[in-house]
């Protein structure tokens, strides 16, 4: 019998002061296919209780720890227990709850990067493969419809053979030293014990690489990094530029900074092939510029009613052209695709191909490998560092 | 005791093929404060059933008509019945269900324009006042944080005395004749029995006027309209331009078209005072341009972490600057403000002033009066037609 | 024998403090086809002498008045005397020197508007026709290559039948009262004796109408104007909006203001036909946006090497795409086209059709008629005022 | 006695098919301070004759070679002979005519890059110093008023200490193999004998470096280059990315490509300091974006009437704000500043400091050194290559 119901979600992390927890909840809520029914929102049980109450959860399902959540949810009847967990903790608390969730039979949505270290990522990857459960890593930006369109334009040959990829993610929010009291994010994201071996490169460099590989369809082959720790008192990189060589010979550059004073979050990608080029940036997220030589530039526009868009773009759009969708909708696209795929899986039906297009374990592994390699390259006197999983 | 729970919503209309129904549901879902628990989604009971099932509603609360919904919901225990209805039907089915909802004690969110005729609007207005229930009319665009910021910049004197208002809403979707089979919207929106005496002016001209009055703080005093029915076979205006005079002497113009071939939905407003001017457009919704003479232009940017923004903008923002929010978030802002105000009302507490900033019955009345006046002016040989409620 | 030489220009007006005189000289200089050899730069002989010396003129050809210039130049041998005059005086000093120049056998480039009154314009028009001499009126904006491209897209049917024209010219420089000492422009341009019956509408409204008629190929049929004199102490309009009806039924609006605080000179036109729409604005002068329904938007780009552009755009471009040209090049295009046509005329050869595309007496007459009609309509209680030459 | 006259210019190169020759002539003409009176326009005497005639030169001053020009001009009376030469030949014909011009007492304007090799540049530099004559190297982009404003904002401390420089120059015109018949530029610019050891890096990479050093006030210290020859059959780089380290510790990146398919000439620079950041791009050349953290972004606008601009920006602007100036005006600014300085020198007066702000021998030397180093680094396995003159 068809399992026609909302999926039940439990959340780990995302208590008071968490930016990304709130984003995950909005993304999960938006399309009415998921309901938050349980949570362990903080390592501090009081904070978890406060968060759960604010989120209208039943008291019995606000947990003091994720261990408790797994144990008690598992004990609930099948038609009540959570289907999956959403894990939105700092990086150093990714591995343990994810592994436990999977081993207890819960599917997982995990905030990026996958883990604290590449070693953990490889181990987690094995668990994912062994359990066969569904895993989604929220590399937000590949959820944008025009990013999906860009990928299709590359894969359908509109751009020809890809020669060059420019990707950049300039932020300015760490332009000065910020204490953890002032900004919870600034605290853990600049602390190697909680963030991992990279700062800026782990936080946003991984997004940029993921976007570059997703759109271009290319795989990184080697890299040359110049990483900087601009402000004294910091231990991790807050800025860097990475030369890229892809398998097959295309080249590129990845620019990421958290000290680009005044910059917000204008992630941008440009891809050039031997037939055409394209350009997308988050600040104008609903447009995709395509440049064919000797022809007028084209502006592809996101919109539910746009006949020339690919099925991938259309499946990730909610409003007519000109009514802008944004970051939260991109995030929600990953949740909706994950939820649709999971529902199909639970029902034993075949998911549509567009639903399967959400970031998963391979993206996670590559991201963690990128972090390791980029730090190593940053310390090397040699120009090129080979990238290998 | 504090009533800490999600608000329960019933929906009227929004069945298969409805664009705006889906938008209302996303807007209601987004912030996790409202849950859809009942609905009469179509005048066709089968379609209502299909819609309800797709939305995961309990069978017992999918109704064949709104009359049935009101009756049965009213009979439910107080802690189960819906708190409010969201009415998303075509214009000719606004008055009846809204009046009945109110008379049965349910608060109402209603899609704009308020009613089919100005007469209905006045009558509805009386019912709203008599029942004292909460009423929200979803003039979407005043939900944008930077529109709220614009209003604050006018009201706090940054622009000085307002001299001039330009507002425009160019659409192109009715550039050719479209049958109702092809596009359900094109059907009822061009049919006077379901749409009212105006086409373009009712559909989007009212949005433009609402935006102009909201931002400028001015009230329309007289107008001069040139309305056009561009395509043969149509009975309503599909295009028009309206000269505006506001109380106090400022002037302006309102441009609206549905035959601006190739245009999407780039609603735009410019307001000029004797100290400074401002400019906002939906296509770049997260920016607000402020121009002071003899100084660099300023770009105000939406964002949860932006220290210079007013409390009104900040209360209607979810993401840090540079992570774009869009149309659905603007829509959700009205729902969230309505929900917060309603929760306060249910709890007997005072709502914060920012929550009360959602469009209500006065906006609705003025919009319906605008439709009447603009059609009358369009037919007049006299230049100016006095605007009065 | 072919007359292969630079054309010799005399200038009337353009002395110290003149903005537009300097612009005319740059425009005439730019392409090396014209040389300034004589001038009567001011009604004040001392100022004329200073200006002439600064411009490296031979003393013998710096004149105390234009009457003196005509007399003495006429007495020079044919291979020395000026070929044409460039008249850049305030509006009330357009008619007399232009008529005299023509009657003395000199071709004329004249700054717009053509004359102080419509009566003068009609009379001048007769003189132009009688003398058969070449006359160019510098409506700058039709000199932009992408404006020419826009005209071609309309005339070659790309847009289909034109339905709608939006044209706007918002300026802010008269946002406050400015004395003539502070700003020479502000002085005469707000003085009816020197500027004519209209202020804003004469100064920039005529540019907007000219652009609208040029691009759309339509002729104004009737209009309805709301003119405002915003600042007390002024006698002429400093702001206005005009509803437009064109012959054949298309409609439009013309917005012009000099009190749009903070606005610069972003003249903008949008034209919508039953097949496509287009958009051009001075602020992004090298782009022309073309919108076909159900296709990606197109950005046509100015550039000497752009294969898809019309011969009209290409003949008015100097640099490769992406090296922006601007206002001075648009101005220079009129001079160059005038010069090329005049050289052909002097040589008895046929000018190319692209060279003939500069504004002339019909543009001037229509502009002056527009000023008369727009002022009359502004004072009328009737909605529509018929436009007739 | 004051020497109040136009400067007399001779041109070397710039015959039929030359893009940059025409640009130099427009730039020299524009402000009416320079007159072209002589030229050796091609190594082919017939072509030189044709070009000279088209430019209205006196037959006696159209030369068959630059050697002839120097000899004959030198023999003319002082009040007739050229003051300076403008040299617009391909790179391999820079050194010889420049040295000879100087040794014959003529000042020089030279198109960039300075010479074919760094060795030549050093030798030329000595000649310049020995002769004490004026030398201008036309690095066009530092002639833009908003680039000058950017430099001032850095040097006056508005940005604080500079941390990061991003500079990019993406072109697409060499996206496919183009024969010399099709495009004269494509011929010599991809030929090492005429272009030098670098292709893309010499042609536009040098512009980018010059812009970066000019605006930031920083000097390059070491670099790490990834150069590519994308199309088979080419011998020089057509693309590359260079990591930059500046003296004092700031870092940056320089991206240049001629195979960025569809790209035009959107040279762009971003500079970030510890107080603010700025951004300028040629496509929107009249705007300069300044970003202060926690304040609205600012848009500085070029314009002759803009009170907040520095004297450097104002001295290089001709039109009021909103009337765009472009590439040709930027180019003309170098000519005008050179001409003003030269006139002062001839008159024995002190030039104003703003006039001296044109690119000269140091820019040329550094550019040639950059070419040498970038090619060397491109071939090295070591990450960093020290940059030294």
From TrEMBL, chains A, B, C, D:
<dbReference type="Pfam" id="PF22725">
    <property type="entry name" value="GFO_IDH_MocA_C3"/>
</dbReference>
<protein>
    <submittedName>
        <fullName>Gfo/Idh/MocA family oxidoreductase</fullName>
    </submittedName>
</protein>
<feature type="domain" description="Gfo/Idh/MocA-like oxidoreductase N-terminal">
    <location>
        <begin position="7"/>
        <end position="136"/>
    </location>
</feature>
<dbReference type="InterPro" id="IPR000683">
    <property type="entry name" value="Gfo/Idh/MocA-like_OxRdtase_N"/>
</dbReference>
<dbReference type="Pfam" id="PF01408">
    <property type="entry name" value="GFO_IDH_MocA"/>
</dbReference>
<feature type="domain" description="GFO/IDH/MocA-like oxidoreductase">
    <location>
        <begin position="148"/>
        <end position="278"/>
    </location>
</feature>
<dbReference type="InterPro" id="IPR051317">
    <property type="entry name" value="Gfo/Idh/MocA_oxidoreduct"/>
</dbReference>
<dbReference type="InterPro" id="IPR036291">
    <property type="entry name" value="NAD(P)-bd_dom_sf"/>
</dbReference>
<dbReference type="InterPro" id="IPR055170">
    <property type="entry name" value="GFO_IDH_MocA-like_dom"/>
</dbReference>
């Amino acid at each position: 019998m068809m399992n026609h119901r909302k999926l039940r979600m439990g959340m780990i992390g995302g208590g008071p002061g968490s930016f990304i927890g709130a984003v995950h909840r909005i993304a999960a809520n938006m399309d009415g296919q998921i309901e938050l029914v349980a949570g362990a929102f903080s390592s501090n049980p009081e904070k978890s209780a406060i968060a759960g109450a604010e989120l209208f959860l039943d008291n019995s399902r606000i947990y003091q720890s994720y261990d408790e959540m797994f144990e008690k949810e598992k004990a609930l009847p099948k038609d009540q227990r959570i289907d999956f967990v959403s894990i939105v903790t700092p990086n150093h608390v990714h591995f343990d709850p994810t592994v436990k969730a999977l081993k207890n039979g819960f599917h997982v949505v995990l905030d990026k990067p996958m883990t604290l270290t590449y070693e953990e990522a490889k181990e987690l990857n094995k668990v994912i493969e062994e359990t066969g459960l569904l895993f989604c890593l929220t590399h937000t930006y590949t959820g944008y419809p025009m990013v999906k369109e860009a990928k299709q334009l590359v894969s359908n040959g509109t751009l020809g053979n890809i020669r060059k990829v420019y990707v950049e993610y300039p932020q300015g929010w760490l332009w000065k030293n910020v204490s953890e009291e002032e900004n919870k994010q600034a605290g853990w994201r600049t602390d190697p014990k909680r963030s991992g071996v990279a700062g800026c490169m782990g936080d946003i460099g991984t997004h940029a690489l993921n976007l570059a590989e997703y759109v271009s369809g290319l795989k990184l082959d080697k890299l040359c990094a110049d990483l900087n720790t601009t402000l004294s008192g910091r231990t991790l990189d807050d800025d860097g530029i990475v030369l890229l060589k892809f398998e097959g010979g295309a080249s590129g550059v990845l620019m990421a900074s958290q000290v680009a004073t005044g910059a917000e979050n204008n992630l941008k990608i440009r891809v050039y092939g031997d037939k055409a080029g394209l350009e997308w940036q988050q600040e104008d997220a609903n447009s995709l510029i395509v440049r064919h030589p000797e022809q007028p530039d084209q502006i592809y526009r996101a919109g539910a009613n746009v006949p020339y868009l690919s099925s991938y773009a259309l499946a990730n759009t909610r409003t007519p052209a000109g009514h802008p969708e944004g970051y939260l909708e991109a995030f929600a696209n990953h949740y909706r695709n994950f939820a649709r795929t999971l529902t199909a899986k639970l029902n034993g039906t075949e998911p549509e191909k567009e639903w399967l297009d959400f970031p998963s374990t391979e993206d996670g592994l590559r991201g963690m490998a990128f972090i390791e390699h980029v730090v190593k390259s940053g310390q090397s006197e040699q120009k090129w560092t080979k990238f290998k999983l």
